[in-house]
Design a protein that fits this description.
Blueprint lengths: L1 H10 L3 E3 L2 H6 L13 E4 L3 H14 L3 E4 L14 E4 L7 E5 L4 E4 L5 H8 L4 E2 L12 H7 L6 H4 L2 H4 E7 L5 E5 L7 H16 L1 H7 L25 H4 L8 E8 L1 E2 L5 E7 L2 H11 L6 E6 H8 L2 H10 L6 E7 L7 H14 L12 E6 L2 H12 L1 H5 L7 E2 L13 H14 L4 E6 L4 E8 L4 H20 L11 H4 L3 H5 L1 H14 L49 H6 L17 H6 L6 H12 L11 H7 L7 H5 L6 H16 L3 H7 L1 H10 L1 H4 L1 H4 L3 H9 L28 E3 L3 H5 L2 H13 L4 E3 L13 H4 L4 H20 L4 E3 L2 H4 L5 H5 L3 H9 E3 H7 L16 E5 L2 H5 L3 H8 L6 E4 L18 H10 L1 H7 L5 E4 L2 H11 L6 H10 L1
Helix pairs in contact: 1-3, 8-21, 11-17, 13-15, 17-18, 34-46, 36-39, 40-42
């Protein structure tokens, strides 16, 4: 609708996006639905929102307020003008520490809010599992709960007031205190209170008495029994259908800094459910369920494997995580002991057999508790990590019943699933009778869609029989709104419609949710609609672990379930470009959605090789953070290779990409002519003159070619080697001192090392990474073939293959097996070791003796993204722990931002610097001058040098220095 977009651009300051690619990125949330929006606006102010509402009303266009886009039920998709509050409308307006309250914009993320509150000893305790990306506006619209609702309540219990626009453009304060209301608002308030009085008996009779009831409108807040009545509670849980929130006042709580956890093991799922009602009598902060399916899946996810091994004993069918947080922390030991005793009283012991087996693992270490919390909060996404087309589907996700009925309810639900030929996955809030259960279905199949409908009908009948709530946490949206009459009765549904009509008579705000809903199984609204298909396509890498076209490429893309874990702004690595731009486009989820729409023809012909797709991928730095941190395993770095390869086949390469990709081919000559090739950095004006031609920014010096590159002959044969050194292009031609230091370190440990070499007369070996970075897959495969042929004889002897550059050495573990799958590359992947991994592996080896002193009082360590993705960081820390009298501090940071050639690009160098300034550069600047800065990545060292003036060194150089001590 170009007219609408033009009008918006003329009247708002925020970003207006109406192209097909941008709209497609907002067409889905974490539900099973997809609805293409009319356009997207990221508002910068209340004036932008007022203007958008006025324009939408004039143009008869619906409005959809959106936060993190992680709704399970389809609340945040619609054929509407989407207003994304997360990019700009996301600050704290007021903080009153003394009275434990704050006022925030709806786009602020929960974790960001709590980081700001922590120095004041306060937090907002509605701790939803999506805290790293859930916004306060979205949580308010959904009446979110979190794992500690047993103690702190839900959003409606913690929202004090809301300022909001109504559909007519007027702005009002919903709350107990505030300005004198206008006559129109007073009329609205009085109408609502009259409805509450009139319907009080019906509300009492029909509303479930369970704590977890978030279905329909909260008209129970309007009854005389709730006087004084706070109309903010009516907006809470209204899913953006009644008003547009602009400021939300929250009740804050003191932080209880210490807690303990008891991990209760059960031999059967039913026993765990039956035990919950007893365990809550110990007054825990929460009781969370983890079932056997989730345990098994978590074992296969690198970031969770160690946690499972630490806390899970044997093969339980279910765990209950019982958390205690007392103001007096000295009571924690007694609480855990009481939990242990209660498990014994219930008949469980570690020495028991059969159904009597079970017990408590006591967890008092805060770091392990944190890892368990990460595991628990990722439960939904762990369940979605199944790689075939059948996935756990959210539609009866979070029904809630009384605890006394929980075991019987779950047994009944299991019977329903079995009757329909499927099974369920279970996890979440056993303490409040709200379990997240997902039947495994393939919603690309009509028969499974029919099964979903049948299960929903029978499940909600079962919930009604136990007088429970069909929506205990995730709201109504498109999934459950249709079933309100079954749950509440026709009269209550009419009351909901009356509320909607009084607030929003024209249906401006998020129509089709809570009232006037479509059928939940209308496939025209599905992500996988009736005509959904991906034609066969040529792919360059091995995707055989997944299903679908492109040898499984389709299935790998579809692993993204829109959970939004990549939207986190602190911690881990992913997604560094999003942390700078806050744009959905620059996000693993945004890119995955774009790819899925492109390969299924929903973005027009040739979308995969289009300029818009290139723009979508431009800021992906291939950090591989998503490979490790995405709970469903979306590997965008690998997917980007496919996009680049397709684009290279279609359009060829420009000079910039050729200079990057072919570096291994011309490196020997560039090094020999280093006096000339380095002139670009030393002669004023050359960088500026060549900027447009080469695509390298004139604002940065390029890496300096060494006049004395590393030569294989520098390492003389010493009999049978004990290890093989892979000399990569970057260390060979730019920083050969790192390779020479490695040889000295290994020699000091009496390790006979040999340098891997190509046959006589051939240029040195290369991993092919630079070719992959520009989409030249055939050239990369040729380089990989040479490397495999040279290294395989050593690997077959069981020799470790040692490398220095993470992005090169770890290519042997990741990209090369994907380029050339088979037993040879699998063997090489197992033998490939970073230098520090090799040294860490020698612990306990009496023949390995590396004499080290202290090179500095303190080491500040920055990990390369690929080291983090491939779980190498613990080995670096273990190796550096060998240094006596030396403090080691690891910088908690995302990608450094240099990312190969990314930081040197004319149109990407500014983003690169901003990535560095997020965490890395400030930490380095704050370091004492006596502190050594260590980074294995060539790019990382250059980024730190460029942004801080400090000169980091490779671990090999650090160890060489330590030898001299």
């Amino acid at each position: 609708m170009p007219q609408l977009s033009d009008i918006l651009k003329s009247r708002v300051e925020g970003d207006v996006l109406f192209d097909r690619f941008s709209r497609g990125r907002y067409a889905t949330d974490a539900s099973l639905y997809q609805m293409m929006p009319l356009g997207v606006l990221s508002p910068k102010s209340e004036d932008d929102i007022r203007a958008a509402i006025d324009i939408a009303r004039e143009q008869d266009v619906p409005i959809l307020a959106r936060g993190g886009g992680t709704s399970q039920c389809g609340q945040t998709v619609n054929t509407a003008l989407v207003l994304d509050n997360t990019q700009y409308f996301n600050n704290i307006l007021e903080l009153d520490v003394a009275n434990q309250r704050c006022v925030v914009r709806p786009g602020i993320v929960l974790d960001e809010l709590n980081r700001a509150l922590k120095p004041h000893g306060l937090w907002f305790p509605v701790d939803v599992s999506t805290a790293s990306r859930a916004t306060i506006g979205g949580m308010t619209g959904n009446n979110s709960c979190g794992g500690k609702s047993l103690r702190y309540g839900m959003m409606r219990d913690n929202v004090l007031s809301i300022d909001a626009f109504l559909a007519d453009g007027s702005h009002h304060h919903f709350g107990m205190n505030g300005p004198v209301p206008s006559p129109d608002f007073a009329d609205l308030r009085d109408d609502m209170l009259r409805l509450g009085t009139r319907e009080a008996d019906e509300i009492d009779a029909r509303f479930p008495k369970v704590m977890r009831r978030v279905g329909g409108y909260n008209i129970d807040a309007l009854t005389p029994a709730q006087a004084p009545n706070n109309l903010a509670q009516l907006l809470v849980g209204s899913e953006g259908t009644l008003a547009y929130s602009t400021a939300i006042e929250l009740k804050l709580w003191p932080i209880l800094s210490q807690k303990v956890l008891g991990v209760c093991h059960f031999a059967t799922f039913h026993q765990a459910m039956d035990a919950a009602q007893h365990l809550v009598t110990l007054n825990p902060q929460g009781v969370e369920l983890v079932d056997a399916t989730m345990i098994a899946l978590a074992r296969d996810i690198p970031m969770f494997r160690a946690t499972i091994e630490e806390v899970v004993t044997g093969t339980p069918e279910a765990l209950l995580l019982v958390e205690f947080a007392e103001e007096d922390s000295t009571r924690h030991t007694a609480k855990l002991n009481a939990l242990d005793e209660m498990m014994g009283d219930l008949g469980f012991s570690w020495s028991g057999t059969g159904s009597a087996w079970g017990g408590v693992t006591k967890v008092t270490d805060a770091a392990i508790q944190g890892r368990i919390a990460d595991l628990r909060s990722s439960g939904l996404n762990i369940m979605m990590s199944m790689k075939d087309d059948g996935k756990p589907v959210s539609f009866v996700e979070d029904c809630a019943v009384e605890l006394i009925d929980l075991a019987d309810y779950t047994a009944g639900l299991t019977e329903i699933f079995e009757r329909h030929g499927t099974r369920g996955t279970w996890y979440a809030h056993a303490s409040v009778g709200c379990l997240h259960v997902r039947p495994v279905l393939n919603l690309k199949l009509d028969k499974d869609v029919a099964t979903m409908r049948a299960i929903a009908e029978e499940c909600f009948d079962l919930v009604a029989r136990y007088k429970g709530s069909h929506s205990g946490e995730h709201g109504d949206g498109l999934v459950r709104s249709e079933f309100h009459e079954k749950m509440f009765g026709a009269r209550m549904v009419a009351n909901f419609a009356e509320v909607k009509k009084r607030f929003d008579p024209g249906g401006l705000f998020n129509p089709g949710k809570i009232v006037d809903a479509p059928k939940m199984d209308d496939r025209r609204l599905f992500r996988y609609g009736p005509d959904y298909a991906a034609p066969e396509m040529q792919t360059a890498l091995d995707w055989s672990d997944w299903t679908g076209s492109g040898g499984g490429f389709q299935g790998a893309i579809e692993m993204c379930n829109n959970n939004g874990a990549c939207r986190k702004l602190k911690g881990g690595v992913m997604c560094p470009s999003f942390r700078v731009t806050r744009k959905e486009q620059d996000l693993t989820r945004g890119r995955a959605n774009t790819l899925r729409l492109a390969i299924t023809g929903q973005l027009g012909p040739d979308a995969l090789t289009s300029e818009q797709m290139a723009e979508t991928m431009k800021l992906c730095v291939s950090c591989k953070g998503c490979k490790r941190e995405c709970p469903t395993g979306v590997d965008m770095a690998r997917m980007k290779i496919e996009v680049l390869a397709a684009r290279a086949r279609e359009h060829g390469l420009g000079l910039h990409d050729c200079l990057v990709g072919y570096l291994p081919r011309y490196a020997p000559w560039a090094s020999r002519l280093s006096v000339l090739t380095n002139l670009r950095n030393t002669v004023p004006g050359i960088a500026r003159l060549t900027e447009r031609l080469t695509g390298f920014t004139a604002t940065r010096d390029l890496p300096v070619w060494s006049a004395h590159p590393f030569k294989n002959r520098e390492v003389a044969p010493q009999g049978s080697p004990q290890a093989v050194l892979f000399a990569d292009c970057f260390n060979r031609y730019f920083e050969p001192e790192n390779l020479r230091a490695t040889v000295k370190v290994l020699d000091a440990a009496d390790v006979r090392v040999q340098v891997a070499a190509a046959p006589d007369g051939e240029r040195p070996l290369c991993c092919g990474r630079t070719f992959l970075s520009v989409g030249l897959v055939d050239e990369a495969k040729a380089e990989a073939r040479r490397l495999v042929d040279a290294l395989l004889p050593y690997a077959e002897q069981g020799l470790p293959i040692i490398g220095l550059e993470p992005s090169c050495l770890l290519t042997l573990r990741d990209e090369i097996p994907a380029l050339m799958p088979g037993t040879d590359t699998a063997l090489l992947a197992r033998q490939a070791r970073m230098l520090e991994e090799y040294i860490a592996d020698q612990d306990g080896n009496p023949d390995f003796n590396l004499p080290l002193g202290s090179p500095a009082p303190k080491i500040l360590l920055h990990g390369h993204c690929h080291q983090k993705a491939m779980d190498v960081m613990s080995s670096i820390q273990k190796t550096l722990s060998r240094l006596p009298d030396t403090e080691i501090e690891t910088i908690e940071t995302s990608c450094c931002g240099m990312a190969g050639s990314f930081g040197y690009g004319v149109d990407t160098h500014e983003i690169s610097r901003k990535m560095a300034e997020a965490d890395l550069a400030p930490a380095v600047r704050a370091a004492d001058p006596s502190t050594l800065i260590v980074a294995d990545g060539t790019s990382c060292r250059h980024q730190v040098g460029d942004t801080t003036g400090r000169k980091p060194i490779h671990v090999a150089r650090l160890l060489e220095m330590a030898l001299k001590q």
